[in-house]
Amino acid sequence: MEEKSRVNQATRCDTCHNEYDKTFDVIMNGNTYTFDSFECAIHLLAPRCDHCSCRIIGHGLESNGVFYCCDHCAEASGVMGLRDRIEA
Ligand SMILES: [Zn+2]
Ligand SMILES: [Zn+2]
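Above are the sequence and the zinc ion SMILES. Below is the predicted complex in structure-token form.
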């Protein structure tokens, strides 16, 4: 139980628990998260590629609720037809 006194309305980052006066909130699926940096937001909220486990920061690809960072990873997992460009 470590309750710090809340001076100048500093709020705590949900990822690293850093107390900071310039945090921002992200609402995802009805839940509100507080972060001190985009890095922390990505760490907690960005989906992971099902194949290489990297964080998906761009649009990525989704197939049946599974996310991939790129079409290479999707294809390596046997998911076809997610290419945004068909090579003839
Ligand atoms: Zn943080
Ligand atoms: Zn990947």
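DSSP finds two helices and six strands in the chain.
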